[in-house]
Write a structure and sequence with these properties.
mainly alpha; single chain
């Protein structure tokens, strides 16, 4: 089976790339959002970047940050459901991927450095 700690550098690098792409998207679309939505989007944009740095360095806080990201994605889905009356399939797929990654890294949390 794949070892989460050995693959943390690769996943961290991918999270950093994802974070940079999301930062660019946030800057372009910042004027189109309401204040609560903008704050949630900013968190969902910056946290993958920070989590990527933590995972790249094989730090335990990167695993915890991934858990925080799961919570924020759930909040985003709830917000979209109640305010916009819609939930996209992309959000649900994203949530599933982040949950699987979190559980994968969490299973080896003792091997990450503090």
């Amino acid at each position: 089976m794949l070892d989460p700690v050995k693959n943390a550098k690769v996943m961290g690098f991918l999270f950093i790339i994802l974070g940079v792409l999301k930062i660019n998207s946030l800057i372009v679309h910042a004027g189109e959002s309401e204040s609560i939505e903008l704050i949630l989007n900013a968190c969902l944009t910056l946290i993958p970047f920070v989590v990527g740095i933590g995972l790249f360095q094989k730090k335990l806080w990167g695993v915890y940050g991934n858990g925080l990201l799961v919570v924020l994605i759930v909040l985003e889905i709830i917000y979209n459901y109640f305010v916009l009356a819609t939930v996209s399939v992309g959000d649900l797929v994203s949530l599933a991927i982040y949950i699987v990654l979190f559980l994968w890294f969490w299973s080896a949390k003792q091997k990450f450095s503090k």
